[in-house]
Design brief:
Shape of chain A: globular
Shape of chain B: globular
Radius of gyration of chain B: 23 Å
Bound molecules: flavin-adenine dinucleotide, flavin mononucleotide, iron/sulfur cluster
Strand content of chain B: 15-25%
Number of domains of chain A: 2
CATH architecture of the largest domain in chain A: Alpha-Beta Barrel
CATH superfamily of the largest domain in chain A: Aldolase class I
Oligomer: heterodimer
CATH topology of the largest domain in chain B: FAD/NAD(P)-binding domain
Strand order of the largest sheet of chain B: 4-3-2-5-19
Radius of gyration of chain A: 25 Å
CATH class of the largest domain in chain B: Alpha Beta
Helix content of chain B: 25-40%
Strand content of chain A: 15-25%
Distance between the termini of chain A: 57 Å
CATH superfamily of the largest domain in chain B: FAD/NAD(P)-binding domain
Structural class of chain B: alpha/beta
CATH architecture of the largest domain in chain B: 3-Layer(bba) Sandwich
CATH class of the largest domain in chain A: Alpha Beta
């Protein structure tokens, strides 16, 4: 059995599955039950400063995007940080950590952008026995209007400044949670590192409107005839999150900075993908909110089985495995030539490949009157759209042309050696370099 | 209750009252909105979809299913009605297992086709339940057309003509319009008087005058119709029932299955419909299955279908046969009736086992008897009452192309005309196509005259 225990910025947990800071971690009752179900750790729902608690809307706070059969593909929310009194949260954090010493207990924080505010709250958290803090620089709605959350996360200088204040005022590890509502994720990550962050976690939710109520002409969720953008999460945001994680993992300026991967993790496979792209662990919210705490059992069992199959002894052995293979477009091998191949035995003759290629690609699939579909190699550019739209798995595959073969589309011999844009004759830059 | 399934002879009220409602309930209950969404999601939106090719009316199935999937069941219904104005009935009665659903690529892939028929019903029910009619008539053309026979072929023809702006007089020999939709289709396929409701909904287009109790050959003559109208369409169906040519056939408890079914369909109270204790149905098609199953559902103790050829030759689909078997109907194949035995009361039918050889069907010499107090003949219907002035070919009105008979100005379609299977949906297609041809002919002629 593979070893799922992880140590992330010195915080140990029995598995790499943490619940992200969100409603699932907003109170003692939830967190105890989450630990009973098997979660390796939690990041407690974001705490604000002492004083009158935050207020939430009293109407709906979620919008949703469905796939087939009402499967939740994406969720957005307009919830703010915890609306329970600070002292109640702190008391509960302490009680849970005392009873579950082997689980990771990280506390998310968001207070105004003043050193005094951070100085005041950090010792209170330390006193609970929590393992670390996560700085919420990501919440894109409500709090950002008050100069917090993503309003900080969108300004690298603020990130660096607040991170430094925290590092100077606590012995606990500091994780900086990043917002994806920015053009280049590397800048905030670099700022976090410069401020002394022990790790970054990402992504927080994406600015979004999931749908519009066309009767009331109002975005959802609708509060008394008005709506506002919310933060998008769930399976739909996973691709965005994976890319941002990979960007940070392969940026020389942030290389080696621990990453907690968040965004659409729903199955063991999602988790494995985040790990492969450089995350040291993952955090989950929407999957738990959709299916309940029990999902962690599938995630943990699946990851463990897969690691056994592949011979990975520990989570750290997986972490970052795919990073060396994330590269720039210019380095992709242009001499790697493939053609689509249709397996006639598994083809069910739906014609989707034909419609896709004929209408929107390269007219490289021929359809006979009796519905036999064949790839025309002389036209196929190997885009693989047909593979993507074919309803039968592995019915269409992309087969590589061996070196020395002639590509019937170009009439050129397929070279054996690597050849990319940096050396391509059509690249003016390559010519200049050669001169 | 005095009678039971074991009451000898032919008797009504064999079952407790509540059993009738249960037995004759919707054989395939409608999908609810969520089920329809899930079913619609399974459609691949195929290119040049094989299901469309397999539909005699060529409904754009992937399009209407996608409309359901995007929350537009009424738009879906419009897509269906554009091609098939009786899409509601067809959704209930089409043998989809040998039409669209057999051709569905998911049938090939996993033996579980997209539920096209049930989705079609979901869409058409949604629109029809609102009571609105989705089509408007074109500007009046001043042309008048006689449509004889108000079955699926006649109804589809009349509707399309009315839509094109022609005035239609729709005539039928029977008391009610609908043809076999009203008098023939199994009761559990078209519950809650759907056939009648559908006719009323169809007539909302306007421009169609319905005259019932008008029989061609009695009140009407082709010559008179030709003189009075700009065109004539014949959708007469098959009014005659084939004879067994067996000894004793004239016994009064040997009945045409179609008459039994028509009586059942028109009975307000099914407990009044009398049925035998031991029922034998002779035939191998949809009519045989329907007569047998409905006999069983009325409380007959033993019901047997006997078909003269092998099971694979039965025109009732496997689905229909399975349905009969699931209701407790026994199917005997490879046996032909020799004689009907009995005096005042019927006693039995004697059959000879048959063999299929190069010279056709021959008796093996072995015979057997089946106890029977009621026998239904369901060995096919034939054309009856067709006017003499049109050419008949292989027992049907000969037509070419979109229903043109040998007589100029006279079209025909549905079961009475050559070509196509004898199915509701085929009748609709032929009626519709004839209407388009009539329209093109009349408008073309008018244009020529104007020039
Ligand atoms: C018992 C039974 C069950 C069936 N079940 C199915 C099924 O489940 N699915 C399916 O697809 N098909 C089924 N069919 C076949 C289907 O009903 C027919 O193919 C379809 O009704 C043919 O339509 P039509 O308009 O040509 O004829 P019909 O429906 O027969 O209509 C003909 C009309 O013309 C009228 N008429 C006849 N002669 C004259 C005259 N001389 N003057 C004036 N009017 C006249 C008749 O009264 C009738 O109203 C079944 C048939 C039978 C008998
Ligand atoms: C294969 C592909 C290539 C694209 N190329 C371009 C492009 O060259 N320029 C551009 O402005 N958008 C491009 N787009 C983006 C599309 O125009 C569009 O903005 C995007 O796909 C979102 O729309 P959709 O998901 O509704 O189709 C491309 C999209 C795809 C899928
Ligand atoms: S890979 Fe692209 S170009 Fe080639 S057949 Fe498929 S869709 Fe067409
Ligand atoms: S998409 Fe796949 S299954 Fe459909 S026709 Fe093409 S190869 Fe066959
Ligand atoms: S064949 Fe089946 S999957 Fe394809 S369009 Fe028709 S119903 Fe949909």
């Amino acid at each position: 059995m593979a070893d799922l225990t992880t140590e992330f910025v010195g915080i140990k947990s029995p598995n790499p599955f943490w619940l992200a800071s969100a409603p699932p971690t907003d109170k003692e009752y939830n967190v105890r039950r989450a630990f009973e179900a098997g979660w390796g750790g939690v990041v407690w729902k974001t705490l604000g400063e002492a004083g009158p608690p935050i207020v939430n809307v009293n109407g709906p706070r979620y919008g949703v995007v469905y796939g087939a059969d009402r499967r939740v593909l994406g969720l957005n929310n307009i919830e703010l940080i915890t609306d329970r009194p600070l002292e109640v949260n702190l008391r509960e954090i302490k009680a849970v950590k005392r009873d579950w010493p082997d689980r990771a207990m990280v506390v998310s924080l968001m207070v105004p952008c003043e050193e005094q505010a951070w100085k005041a709250i950090l010792p209170l958290v330390e006193e609970t026995g929590a393992d670390g803090v996560e700085l919420n620089f990501g919440c894109p709605h409500g709090m950002s209007e008050r100069g917090m959350g993503s309003a900080v996360g969108q300004v690298p200088d603020y990130i660096e400044m607040v991170t430094r204040w925290c590092k100077q005022n606590t012995r606990m590890p500091v994780i900086v949670k990043l917002t994806p509502n920015i053009t280049d994720i590397r800048y905030p990550a670099r700022a976090a590192r410069a401020g002394g962050a022990d790790a970054v976690s990402l992504i927080n939710t994406v600015n979004s409107i999931t749908s519009v109520d066309l009767d009331n002409m109002c975005p959802e969720p609708m509060i008394d005839g008005k709506g506002t953008h919310g933060g998008y999460c769930g399976p739909a945001v996973k691709p965005l999150a994976l890319n941002m994680v990979a960007e940070i993992a392969r940026d020389p300026e942030t290389a080696g900075l621990p990453i907690s991967g968040i965004g659409g993790v729903t199955t063991w496979r999602d988790a494995a993908e985040f790990l492969a792209l450089g995350a040291g662990n993952v955090q989950v919210c929407t999957a738990a909110m959709t299916y309940g705490f029990k999902v962690v059992q599938e995630m943990a069992a699946g990851l463990s089985n897969w690691m056994d199959e592949k011979g990975y002894a520990s989570v750290s052995a997986v972490s970052g495995r795919a990073v060396p293979n994330v590269t720039d477009w210019q380095h992709l091998n242009l001499n790697y030539v493939t053609k689509a191949r249709i397996d006639q035995d598994s083809c069910i003759k739906c014609g989707r490949c034909y419609a896709a290629c004929e209408d929107t690609s390269h007219q490289a699939i021929a359809m006979s009157p009796d519905r036999v579909f064949m790839v025309i190699d002389a036209e196929c550019v190997a885009c693989n759209l047909c593979v993507d739209v074919c309803p039968v798995e592995d019915c269409i595959t992309m087969e590589r042309l061996a070196a020395g073969a002639i590509d019937p589309r170009t009439g050129q011999v397929v070279p054996a050696e690597h050849g990319d844009w940096t050396t391509h004759p059509n690249n003016p830059g390559a010519l200049k370099a050669a001169e | 209750m005095t009678n039971s399934p074991r009451t000898p002879g032919i008797a009504p009220a064999r079952l407790p009252r509540e059993a009738y409602a249960r037995n004759f309930a919707d054989v395939e209950p409608p999908l609810d909105a969520h089920e329809a969404m899930v079913a619609a999601d399974r459609c691949y939106f195929c290119h040049d979809a094989p299901c469309i090719t397999a539909c005699p009316t060529a409904i754009d199935i992937p399009l209407f299913i996608r409309q359901i999937q995007t929350g537009q069941p009424e738009g879906a219904a419009k897509t269906i009605f554009d091609q098939n104005i009786l899409g509601g009935m067809c959704a209930r009665v089409c043998p989809t297992e040998v039409l669209c659903e057999e051709a569905c690529v998911r049938e090939a892939a996993e033996g579980k086709p997209v539920e096209i028929g049930r989705l079609q019903r979901y869409a058409t029910d949604t629109l029809m339940q609102r009571g609105v009619h989705p089509f408007e008539r074109a500007a009046p053309t001043g042309k008048r057309i006689a449509v004889v026979g108000a079955g699926p072929a006649g109804l589809a023809c009349a509707h399309r003509l009315a839509m094109k702006g022609h005035d239609v007089v729709l005539m039928d020999a029977r008391e009610k319009a609908g043809g076999l939709n009203e008098y023939g289709i199994a009761a559990y396929k078209t519950v809650d008087n759907f056939a009648e409701a559908e006719v009323n909904w169809l007539l909302q287009i306007g421009g169609i005058e319905l005259r019932t109790g008008q029989r061609l050959g009695r009140e009407l003559s082709l010559a008179a119709l030709e003189a009075e109208y700009d065109a004539v369409f014949l959708g007469l169906g098959l009014a005659g029932v084939n004879a067994l040519r067996s000894e004793g056939e004239e016994h009064h408890h040997v009945q045409d299955a179609v008459d039994f079914i028509a009586g059942l369909r028109q009975a307000g109270d099914l407990s009044t419909v009398a049925v035998g204790r031991d029922v034998v149905v002779i035939g191998g098609g949809m009519t045989a299955v329907d007569a047998a199953v409905q006999s069983k559902l009325l409380g007959a103790e033993n019901v047997t279908i006997v078909y003269r050829r092998g099971q694979d030759r039965m025109s009732a689909s496997t689905h229909e046969q399975d349905h009969a078997a699931s209701k407790g109907v026994r199917i005997v194949t490879g046996a032909a009736p020799l004689r009907i035995i009995g005096g005042d009361h019927l006693e039995a039918v004697e059959f000879a086992y048959t063999e299929e050889g190069p010279d056709g069907l021959t008796p093996t010499g072995e015979t057997f008897r089946l106890k029977a107090d009621q026998v239904f003949k369901a060995i096919g219907q034939h054309l009856a009452g067709a006017p003499e002035d049109v050419h008949i070919e292989a027992g049907k009105i000969a037509v070419t192309g979109p229903g043109r008979t040998t007589r100029l100005g006279v079209w025909a379609g549905g079961d009475c005309a050559t070509g196509g299977d004898d199915l509701t949906v085929t009748a609709v297609a032929e009626g519709r196509d004839a209407a388009e041809d009539i329209h093109a002919t009349l408008v073309g002629a008018a244009q020529l005259a104007a020039e």
